[in-house]
Amino acid sequence: MQSDWLWAWGGGMMIGTSVVLMWLGYGRILGVSGMVAGLWQPRDGTYHWRRWFVAGIVVSGWLCQWILGLAVGPTMLGWPGLLVGGFLVGLGTRMAGGCTSGHGVCGLGRLSKRSLVAVLIFVSSGMTTVTLLRLMLGGQ
Predict the structure, then answer these.
(1) Of the candidates 131, 124, 112, 109, which has an alpha carbon nearest to the alpha carbon of residue 23?
(2) Over the stretch 67-82, which tens digit does the pLDDT of each residue have?
(3) Phi, psi (5° rounding) for residue 60?
(4) pTM for the whole thing?
(5) Measured in whole angstroms, how far is the alpha carbon of residue 86 from the centre of its chain?
(6) Helices 78-96 & 32-40, crossing angle to 10 degrees?
(7) b vs e for 113-135, b when ≥16 Cβ sit within 10 Å of the residue's Cβ?
(8) Cα-only R_g, the chain
(9) CA atoms of 51 and 128, how far apart (whole Å)
(10) Fewest C-beta in 10 Å: which of 8, 30, 41, 133?
């Protein structure tokens, strides 16, 4: 579609806005893996706003799906593949000390060398995974 770039631009603007609001409102870097980890290991009274933040991510995804009429379901690997993939992403974010939102948006914006290395690993791992899956699934 010709308007695909508008969706990417709009999503980027919303992510950037939420990063700025998180920094101005709470003095914290917005990283989704850190938000979720804080739900399991609450400290310093941040549980409630973390809960609302994560709930907002889930609800906004459902709302966009419903409003735009998108049919979104499990990946081509089905629910087992989705669950295994989610677990591996969670494991990787803990090993990397953050996720793409924390390192990619906030870390690179602060010129963090550690975040640059993490993002390079994220991107190269994603490219490798897509290439291998396409080869294994017959070039789809």
Answers:
(1) 109
(2) 877 666 666 667 788 7
(3) -65, -35
(4) 0.65
(5) 11
(6) 90
(7) eebeebbeebeeeeeeeeeeeee
(8) 17
(9) 34
(10) 41
Rounded CA gap, 28 and 97, in Å? 15
Cα pseudo-dihedral 140, 133, 15, 97, rounded to 10? 180
Nearest to 67 by CA among 78, 75, 59: 59
Closest CA to 125 of 94, 97, 100, 105: 100
DSSP codes joined into one string, 27-85: S----HHHHHHHHHS--TT-HHHHHHHHHHHHHHHHHHHHHHT----S-TTHHHHHHHH
Distance (Å, whole) CA 56 – CA 14: 13
**Lookup result for tokens 């459902």:** 62
98: DSSP letter: S
Q: What is the pLDDT of residues 3-41, one digit of tens each?
A: 778 878 888 888 888 888 888 988 888 888 888 888 887
